[in-house]
């Protein structure tokens, strides 16, 4: 007799095996869908693009990315969710019940706990902000246009959810929980005004997130659990050691959140906002291209993992500097180029 959790996981493995069978010839597409749903994609793509299309929306996108990823990381610590690629090895369920091995891919072996799905939760919140703000600022009144936009939202989220199941890094209930959480957070942050937020606001939230992170960490330790337990499982059961990436750990996510928000606060302090959104299309495209080049370069700068403390510290510095470069330096350099 299986427990409710085991029954849920067994059902999830069945769904994963079925999806892997159906889409086995489309693994490249599945990996791409999972890539664009990666939380770091919100930092490296959605934020810079939306920021230079509309500064207020861009900052709101970064805020909802930070808060939703932070909440997701804390929830993962507390919920202790399994991941399919290691659960099949450690469940203890009799393999005669069609519990077969699941196929692993190069991005399968994420090192954080599995519930809720960060890809679904964070991307769900970000896309909710982008679509709802598009409808608001464009003053869309057509019902058919609204239906089309929200249909695209659910199509994108469904595709990302399927991709997460395909690579066996989440169970179905984890991606559903992530999508629903993302929608709720998107609705909450959709009413956030970013025009009046100063450095002090950003710094205060960063301090608050850091303190709450420390409290949660100590609480998890007090309850007798190792907050880094999932990293050991990833290392043990990943098909290839090089597929295990520390920048997918809960701790790294928390560092990225605080450092990115602090970077935005510093940028606001260095470059007081007038919320100017009247740049020409050519200038906006130049800003976006330059910002994406900066975030792409930053993403490719990966500190060595030999010293974990140095790894996390350099990650913190990298994200602070990257946001400052995007918000402050990129517009300055682009404006200089356009004047030449």
Automatic annotation (TrEMBL):
Gene Ontology CC annotation, any one: endoplasmic reticulum membrane
Domain of life according to the entry: Eukaryota
Presence of keyword Transmembrane helix: yes
Membrane among keywords: yes
Active site: 119, 170
Domain Phosphatidic acid phosphatase type 2/haloperoxidase span(s) in chain numbering: 57-190
PANTHER family attached to this UniProt entry: FI19814P1, GLUCOSE-6-PHOSPHATASE
Protein name: Glucose-6-phosphatase
Natural source organism: Candidula unifasciata
Source taxonomy: Eukaryota, Metazoa, Spiralia, Lophotrochozoa, Mollusca
């Amino acid at each position: 007799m299986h427990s409710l959790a085991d029954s849920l996981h067994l059902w999830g493995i069945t769904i994963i095996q079925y999806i892997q069978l159906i889409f086995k010839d489309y693994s490249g597409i599945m990996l791409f869908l999972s890539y664009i749903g990666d939380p770091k994609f919100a930092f490296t793509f959605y934020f810079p693009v939306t920021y230079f299309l509309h500064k207020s929306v861009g900052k709101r996108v970064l805020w909802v990315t930070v808060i939703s990823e932070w909440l997701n990381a804390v929830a993962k610590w507390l919920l202790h969710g399994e991941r399919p690629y290691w659960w099949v090895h450690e469940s203890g369920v009799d393999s005669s019940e069609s519990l077969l091995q699941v196929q692993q891919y190069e991005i399968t072996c994420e090192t954080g706990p599995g519930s809720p799905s960060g890809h679904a939760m964070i991307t769900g919140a970000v896309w909710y902000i982008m679509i709802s703000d598009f409808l608001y600022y464009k003053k869309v009144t057509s019902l058919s246009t609204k239906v089309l936009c929200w249909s695209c939202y659910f199509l994108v989220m469904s595709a990302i959810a399927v991709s997460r199941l395909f690579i066996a890094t989440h169970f179905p209930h984890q991606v559903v929980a992530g999508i629903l959480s993302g929608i709720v957070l998107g609705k909450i942050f959709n009413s956030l005004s970013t025009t009046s937020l100063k450095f002090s606001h950003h710094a205060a939230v960063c301090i608050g997130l850091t303190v709450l992170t420390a409290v949660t960490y100590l609480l998890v330790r007090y309850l007798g659990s190792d907050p880094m337990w999932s990293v050991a499982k990833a290392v043990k059961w990943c098909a290839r050691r090089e597929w295990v990436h520390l920048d997918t750990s809960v701790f790294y996510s928390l560092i990225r959140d605080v450092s990115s928000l602090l970077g935005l606060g510093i940028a606001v302090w260095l470059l007081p906002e007038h919320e100017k959104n009247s740049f020409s299309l050519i200038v906006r495209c130049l800003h976006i291209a330059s910002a994406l080049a900066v975030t792409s370069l930053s993403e490719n700068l990966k500190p060595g993992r030999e010293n974990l403390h140095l790894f996390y510290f350099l990650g913190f510095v990298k994200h602070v500097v990257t946001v400052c470069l995007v918000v402050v330096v990129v517009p300055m350099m682009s404006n200089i180029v356009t004047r030449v």
